[in-house]
Design a protein that fits this description.
Oligomer: single chain
Number of domains: 2
Number of helices: 11
Strand order of the largest sheet: 5-4-6-3-1-13
Structural class: alpha+beta
Distance between the termini: 9 Å
Bound molecules: adenosine-5'-diphosphate, magnesium ion
CATH topology of the largest domain: Ribosomal Protein S5, domain 2
Radius of gyration: 21 Å
Number of strands: 13
CATH class of the largest domain: Alpha Beta
Length: 386
């Protein structure tokens, strides 16, 4: 019995029926492209959220997290309502409760209820998608326990619906898809319009490479409003250009499209989205040919585009990228929505101590709190553990 299962037994007084796990993710490239119907290229982290679970028969949902101070949150499944998510210290429970609500709303029977206990080593709020890991772990547990016929992409879509409609976060489908569908040693090339998936071999370790994840541990307050404004800027620009989404602008026609935009802010946002989509395509080609190191400069180019054209970086992220690159990284970029969270650096495996030291030193020199630095390799998606 693993630690999560043991804790479940101590908490509820009987053993769970099983333990399920779902990973956090890092997006290698393709930032702010998802709401433009574009491409993303995330991979699953080795860090994951485990959910120990058992069915009940009385329609009650009991939720507990080793990582939240709320104690057990008890909810009546029949009464779950997006207009009244769990308040205060229990607000984290909106993520798993939202998944149950989304399953119920899709006509999938989970009405008997469940006891759940989760624990995670995905840092929360670091841009590594602990929220999707939590949703997907819980969704997979319930789908297995109740014998629901759900494909992985369907599970991802339900988890996203939980976050959009129940928790109230307007995220795209990347995080949940990466957590539910990624495979070990691969990045996941996802077309966010068609939802077509391609698993791209990206075995860093075998190539003598490593990915450094630098969690700046800052989250600047302007993130939410800025995200909404970026989104509407893109949709406005697409309307001016007469395309359904910015994804429909071919890279080759970028200059022409920019000339057709009067608003300089629209021009910057469009340039980021179109060049970023192109970077995804190019990096996929490089990975397919095994030229992993050559992806580095495109990562750094992507960072500059997010910093200068999309204006979603921050001093801590810029410093992480500059310091990692100066210490020998092949390339680096902020990853996730921005204004804090994590940066990613592609490095030689044996350069890890040196690059980590350089980044930490740069943060100290600038008077920033020390970053949390871990290494990641593309790992497996969600699975049942036992
Ligand atoms: P990210 O997904 O980048 O980590 P989010 O703000 O989207 O950041 O999600 C973080 C939130 O998800 C936390 O504040 C918490 O409410 C919830 N959460 C994630 N993992 C856990 C966990 N293991 N236990 C309890 N709540 C969690
Ligand atoms: Mg999240």
């Amino acid at each position: 019995m693993n630690a999560t299962a043991r804790e479940f037994r101590e908490l509820y007084g009987y053993p769970p029926e099983g333990v399920w796990a779902a990973p956090g993710r890092v997006n290698l490239i393709g930032e702010h492209t998802d709401y433009n119907d574009g491409f993303v290229l995330p991979f699953a982290l080795p860090q994951r959220t485990e959910a120990a679970a058992a069915r009940r028969g009385d329609g009650l949902l009991r939720l507990h997290s080793a990582d939240a101070p709320s104690g057990v949150v008890s909810l009546d499944i029949a009464a779950l309502d997006p207009a009244h998510p769990p308040p205060g210290a229990a607000s984290w429970a909106a993520y798993p409760a939202g998944v149950v609500w989304a399953l119920r709303d899709a006509g999938l029977p989970v009405g008997g209820g469940a006891d759940l206990h989760v624990r995670s080593d995905v840092p929360t709020g670091a841009g590594l998608s602990s929220s999707a890991a939590l949703e997907v772990a819980v969704g997979l547990a319930l789908a297995d326990l109740y014998g629901l016929a759900l494909t992985r992409p369907e599970l991802a879509a339900l988890a996203r619906r939980a976050e959009n409609a129940y928790v109230g976060v307007p995220c795209g489908v990347m995080d949940q898809t990466a957590s539910a569908c990624a495979t070990d040693g691969h990045a996941l090339h996802l077309d966010t319009r068609s939802l077509e998936q391609r698993h791209i071999p990206f075995d860093c370790a075998a190539a003598g490479l490593r990915l450094l994840v630098i969690d700046t541990r800052v989250k600047h307050a302007l993130a939410d409003g800025a995200y909404a404004r970026r989104r509407s800027s893109c949709h406005e620009a697409a309307a001016v250009l007469g395309v359904p989404a910015l994804r429909d602008l071919p890279y080759e026609e970028l200059e022409q499209a920019l000339a057709g935009l009067a608003d300089p802010l629209h021009r910057k946002r469009v340039r980021h989205v179109v060049t970023e989509n192109e970077r995804v395509v190019r990096i996929v080609e490089l990975l397919r040919s095994g030229a992993f190191r050559e992806a580095g400069p495109l990562l750094t180019e992507g960072h500059a585009s997010l910093r200068d054209d999309y204006e979603v970086s921050c001093p801590e992220l810029d410093l992480a990228v500059a310091a990692a690159n100066a210490a020998g990284a092949y390339g680096s970029r902020m990853t996730g929505g921005g204004f804090g969270g994590s940066a990613l650096a592609l490095i030689d495996a044996d350069a890890e101590p040196e690059v980590a030291r350089a980044v930490t030193g740069a943060f100290r020199g600038a008077g920033h709190a020390p970053p949390r630095i871990t290494t990641a390799a593309p790992s497996a998606g969600a699975a049942r553990l036992r």
